[in-house]
């Protein structure tokens, strides 16, 4: 890449638009000079920003490059035309920045507004490359072959940085190379190996702790407890898993033997317990039989003591059964007596009700007669009047229809009259136009004749020989055809007027007919003469007032008549209802009196039947009968109770006799002794079961622990092998192997780049230093074993053949060595990125410490480096360089920004 034209506007220290034409450089080396802070390095920043949107130092981005001297209306941008691969490209880039707005706010002050950033790439054929900002940036990297970091490393030598690189310690140089050659990936490999080694070691520690926990889980007896403690103590550092597994296997074998022995003892105890349970069941059953016999004998004595009472209950039940037969007849007698009493009481009630209603009946009859007389008189007075009003309103409805029709006809008549007037005006106007045109036509004909008259020649019209005032010929001749058309228009207008007149006359006749009908209906409705003429509006107002009064009178009369009839209906209905109720009560009284006689006869007959049945059932008096009566439910309950007693007595006697036969000759067993033996045996069984469960639980726990220990042993072996590999790799990559130089993987890779840099640098240094000394990378055998090593730099004197520290170089020698090292590094980076060629190199300061001879050598080397095609720009304010380098780009600092000029 070689810059051709660079334009910067309001960028950095340049307030105005500044254009630098690099095509004016005749030779490869040129000087960029000027005052401190004038903006010499900004030129390289402009190139870098145009290509990548970044500045060379990396401390400021594009948004910070807006010039503080630039007017608010000046736009900030960088425009770079460059060549690469034989093609010319142009890139125009503008950063995002804030500027003063052209508009003012409501307070009259100017606010800040944001200017959006943009980038445009013009291709060799002049067309604009399509794509977003990110796509354009990727395209530029593709064109140049290097990214921003690599470009700044290749194209810019900041001498202060490389002097630090020359004199830096190995640790500091490692940090610089890590950034320059991007060897951090090897550092990450080192860190990853270290982390994996630590994680593996942590897994080993976790495995050891798990092993100790499983050893603690082993349940042991007193005889093996000390051996378990010894295994735990040993495992605090490194568990002896073979001994642990052997110990666990031995425990399991012992527990298996103990468990089998406990099972045998348990079986013996269970057999003895079964025999005791059988004996206890037999003895318990016999004891229950003796207890049941004593209980039944006691119960039988109680039942036999109740025998006399139960015989008396049996006699009471017999009397109650006989009384039940009498009670049926007695109930019929009592029902007949009660019916006669109820009928007698109802008869008295009805007689009292009829006596009370006699006066009220008279009042209702009087009220009904009064309303009937009032309604009759009201009908005679109001009905004819109301009927006349209804007929009049019906006629008024017809009149209203005629009034509406007359109103419509009146509007239509007015419309036809207006239409007739318009037609008449149109006709008159057309007639006047025709008459004027016709007269003009006639005058034209006279003018035509007059044009042919000659003095002393007779006039063809009047025969006169003299023509004192002949008619003048009109300016334009009118044809007869035009006059005829105008006459036809007049005739058509006359016909239209006649048609409108006829329609108006028809409408007028219909309107007059309708008005005549209306007046006739008015006279008929009011039954009087109607001679005066009235307008429709007057008629409507007067008849609407009449209609309102008539309808109000009709409504009031109908309501009054309706209310009176309703009152009469209510009075009539009340009287009819009252009379109906009175007649119903009289009928009820007659029926009740008839029933009283019937109930009296029935009561007499049923009393005779009752007394006959009572005597038959051996009850002397009614009191004896009533005392013997018993409710059916009570009678049933007592019968069942007596039957239950007889059944209990029978069963008790039967059971006592059967048990006496069964227990004859047998003694009552001693259950307490048997229960004591049974309890003792059950306790022994429970203890054996508890011991068996304990052995089973301990055996299961130890089996699980043993299986887990076997798994952990296998895992630990695999972890130990993996840790040995990872630990060795980590110590090797991180340079921590005992007895070797402290050089890690990243430093080792950087050392390869460093040695290439030194070889390239020595080629340049050999010419600059006139073959006095060379740079040398310290060999691995001479590296320190303390701290980071591998990037140490020495100086080899070609004169004395000795090696010394690079810090012993003088100021001029240090600059030459640093410049050579920087050029060597540029060569290495260029080789690293492949076939990419950056035909531009900027060197920032550092020549002030060189003597005249060394400076000339450095200039010659840089001129040789350019080779006539490479562009080398030296940024410096050293006076001697101004004399040695002809091509100079002078940067002048001013109050309103900097300017540039080729000299």
Automatic annotation (TrEMBL):
Keyword Coiled coil applies: yes
BP GO terms, sorted: double-strand break repair
Coiled coil regions, renumbered to chain: 245-440, 475-609
GO MF: ATP hydrolysis activity
Keyword field contains Coiled coil: yes
InterPro entries: P-loop_NTPase (IPR027417)
Biased composition (Basic and acidic residues): 676-687
Entry's family note: Belongs to the SMC family. SbcC subfamily.
UniProt protein name: Nuclease SbcCD subunit C
Naturally occurring in which organism (per UniProt): Blautia faecicola
